[in-house]
Amino acid sequence: MSETGIQNVPIEREAAPRGLGSTLVLALGTFAVGTDAYVVAGFLPAMAHSLHVTESTAGQSATAFAIAYAVLSPVLATALARMPRRALLVGALTVLALANLASALAPDFGALIVTRVVAASGAAAFTPNAGAVAASLVAPAQRGRALAVVVGGLTVATALGVPLGNLAGKMLDWRAALGLVAVLCAVCAAGVRAAMPALPGGPRVPLRERLAALRRPGVVAVLPLTTLGLAAGYGLYAFAVPVMRALGAGAPAETWLLFLYGAGAVAGTLVSGAMVDRHGPIPVQAVGFAVLTVTLAVSAWAAGAGTHWPPLTASLMAAWGAATWFQTPAQQVRLINAAPRQTAVVVGLNSSALYAGIGLGTALGGALLAVGPSVALAVCAGLALMCLPYLGVTRRHR
């Protein structure tokens, strides 16, 4: 959420300041991107049934999206650097719209995977450039708020996009839900085309130069924690519906429990950012990983013991969202401190590491779900616990 890679591409020349209102259409675009990335969690069982695959297999569509995003983000940032920004944003959203339409019409699981990879390419091209364009559209004193508006689209997608996808999947079906995401992307593309001024591309930064930050000891030491932490916290989110059912939640409760996860994610990100400013990143991460470990461990116990108590399930969902996304602001601060002259590059690398963690965690979660939700939750709790000694070993990189 807060770690999006939005500063990945600098703008060569700036337009005349237009005010924060001009960035709202970009926030709508990031909402569409975020909804597309996470929405599968809301209707996974129905999609699996329709495509004649297991829920574990269907969840790998989220793995394909995340891994493709992680790999393509730095590549597309380099390849498309000189492309005029408005054309790039419109093109990326158009690709995303067409890919979602193709996903909605996919005749089988293989075709769905292909369309999810194409969708990831659109998302990887749009998200970093949306932040860079937003910063160029406002006065220097408003740039922080402009970036917050754009990031807010992704945050709201976590809080609202997945629950709404779940609701749409119940009222219509999963194909209609993806079709609605396609329509949203198309509307955003039209809005960007109408509202954004013509902006030139930026200077081309070679891929080798983007990856040069990996030679810095602090970056190399800190970056793996992003992948490990997101694999632990996000590995089962694509399978949130089966997990909730293992905790005793029926179909009527799914939507509001997903809302609780999203609300926890938003709160966790905001509180974490404030606490990092006050206490520094290391204590904040220690608290976040400890809470994540306890939350997943209690969830594993409740699922294994057959404990079905709605207040406990609700609390665990909110804590799961908060603890998963509690870590990202602190990670970003640590990486920027490790390479202060390469801020845009390390933020982009962290974005790729984040999606790599989501992809690897979802692949592992899908494999373990076939054994049982309690086992999958216990393994994810173990991964979260592993983050604490790793944090201790790398604590000098603040």
Summarize this entry quickly.
The protein has about 400 residues and is mainly alpha-helical.
Write structural notes for this entry.
The protein contains 17 helices and no strands. The N terminus is likely disordered. The chain has 398 residues and is an all-alpha fold. Keywords: Cell membrane, Membrane, Transmembrane, Transmembrane helix. This is MFS transporter. Its main location: membrane. It is found in: Cell membrane.
Write the layout of secondary structure elements.
Blueprint: H1 24-38, H2 44-51, H3 55-58, H4 60-79, H5 85-104, H6 109-137, H7 143-171, H8 174-195, H9 207-211, H10 217-234, H11 240-246, H12 251-279, H13 281-305, H14 310-326, H15 328-338, H16 343-369, H17 373-393
State the end-to-end CA separation: 21 Å
Radius of gyration: 20 Å
The percent range for strand residues is under 5%
- Major β-sheet profile: none
Q: Which percent bin holds the helix content? A: over 70%
Number of helical stretches of at least 4 residues: 17
CATH superfamily of the largest domain: MFS general substrate transporter like domains
Classify the fold: give the CATH topology of the largest domain: Growth Hormone, Chain: A
| Whole-number total of structural domains | 2
Could you say what the CATH architecture of the largest domain is?
Answer: Up-down Bundle
Mean pLDDT: 84
Question: Which H/E pattern describes the elements?
Answer: HHHHHHHHHHHHHHHHH
CATH first level of the largest domain: Mainly Alpha
β-strand number: 0
Poorly predicted spans: 1-14
What is the molecular shape?
A: globular
Class by SSE composition: mainly alpha
